[in-house]
Design brief:
The radius of gyration is 25 Å and the shape is globular. The longest helix is centred in the middle third of the chain and has 42 residues, at 311-352. It has 26 helices and two strands. The protein is mostly helical. It has one domain.
Length: 664
Amino acid sequence: MKEDRDLKEFRDLMPPPDQYEEGFGWRTVFMALFVGLLMTPAQIYMHLVAGVEMGSAAQWVTVILYVEVARRAFTTLKRPEIFILFYMCGAVIHTDAEGLLWRQFEVQSVSMRQLGVSEYFPWWYAPTDPDVLGMRSFWMKAWLVPILMVCGQRFVSRLDHFGLAYVMFRLTADVEQLPFPMAPVHAMGMTALADASSQKDTWRWRTFSMGSVAGIAFGAVYLAIPNVTSAIFSEGLRILPLPFVDMTTYTERLLPATAIMISFDLTFLIQGMVLPFWAMVGSFIGLLITLVANPILYRTGVLRSWEEGIGAIQTLQSNMMDFYFSFSLGLAFAVASIGIFHVLSQFRSKNRELDEAGRPKVQWNRLFQAPPGRGDIPIWVALLIYVFSTSCYIAVAYILVNYITPGENNTRFPLWLLLFYGFLYTPMLSYISTRMEGIVGQQVAVPFVREATFILSGYQGAAIWFTPIPLHDYAKQAQFFKTTELTGTRFRSLISTEILIYPIMVAGTLLFSQFIWSIDNVPSEMFPYANQFWELKAYQKGLVYSATLPGEASSPFREAFVPSYLMIGYSLAISAYWLLSHFGLPVFLIYGIVRGFDQSVPHAIIPMFIGAMIGRFGCRKWFGENWPRYRIVFAAGFTAGIGLISMLSLGFVFMTKSVIKLPV
């Protein structure tokens, strides 16, 4: 596989520092409280309203505010301090934006009832009593165990970050010295803010400021005005539609069984400028193929469930049931195969390489010899954390499924399968995926492993789908350790941060989930994104859950899973990969085309493609060789600007809902 030229631009953006400093201090403690009280509700609320993940935005907003306070106090912030603050903000708000709110919806979902799943929800996942759910309150006895389950699982997952993920980082970054081309993205943003804190007028800060102004201007129109007006009047003023415009009913005669959706979210355009160009081109090609293929599939009887007038979301739902569920699995299997082949071939060639002294470039003794001053934890401690956290997952899952909520017809979920997940498959997948992340900035995702093993285990029931299974991919967390290194932050600062933020993270999520639910039903017209997409998501999940229910021979899953469609998707992707490799074309087109076939985000592909074209043929010509660095910092500033204006409007909404209620 030829490495894409765009990704090479990320490799030399930021070399590791010569020394490392402590980033945790008392002034970060106060900002953790600030984030827990303000940013957590914003994360939850904005996801429900616009499907916007406020995690990164809230992080940038908080750091900028802190930098400005420091400047007016005639002090400066070092890069490690800014990074720890950034990390702390991310950890506090990086919770499941749906969380308990999703659970209360899921057990009431129309799709779950239609698929026959509703009666199998375990009591420790969420209460199913309509009287309890009708109270719209988590402060009830029936919610106690589900809340404790959520808190315990989050504690183990935070602890788990310093286990196998850290080992994978040491293997790939220290031993094999892989570049991790995407790691400098956030690290360069930290550098820009550190320059601002020291009052240096650098290109980074100027670029970041321009991005912030653009984000504020767009966020005011796209998010702030609808939020503020909906808080005052019975119906909000939406200048731009949220989350998209559904054009399906206007195009269905020309393009039957094809969802036509247009998004006006400028964030997608900015993302298209930043992400690899050929991946964006591939996504657009994949979308164009579906525009041609879907009418053909409909007229040949494959997309048999579609009807005129059902709209975009129902079109996606019916197409998934008839064809794309199995076809997409085949595409995903092909991508996983390509990624594994790439990793293994690169690993073999790298082991054969010699340095100038004639020694192998891969020196495995570096695993136990960390760079001095970086604050590494011993490898044996990381392995012990991994064994402990995985054992917790296995014990809880086995007890919940086989003793507290036993399966139908005395079926039991096998212990050996849980051990296989935790101690064999997870390490293998994490290593392969982390190497892929370290080489080309992409992960390897092997699809349907959990689902297939659940089905083949013979278990009958639904409880297994809601238990914490030790099946993880630690590639992203390993990349995070690389970003930490690039900012010159001691790793031990992260441990102090985790001890502080966990109780704030849990308390903030519980309190503000309750507050939002008390405002109105979730989903409802007040929360457009959840109102549009949650039922589709529930249908997708319920379709898979139905595979292990009693009487599975006639389950909806069996109807949607067609092996021949899976093989078509797999064969097409492998053939395209071979063709592109043979002619020396960018293989990242494959990843993009697979994303173009993904039936979940068709509204995002067109603006991202437009952004990629503007960046490639416009901005690159205007800014020259500096454009790769400019676009990263500008995108970070744009996200921060949207976050600033969103926080302002959200504060007004919460204040209004808490204090006044004007007559309609």
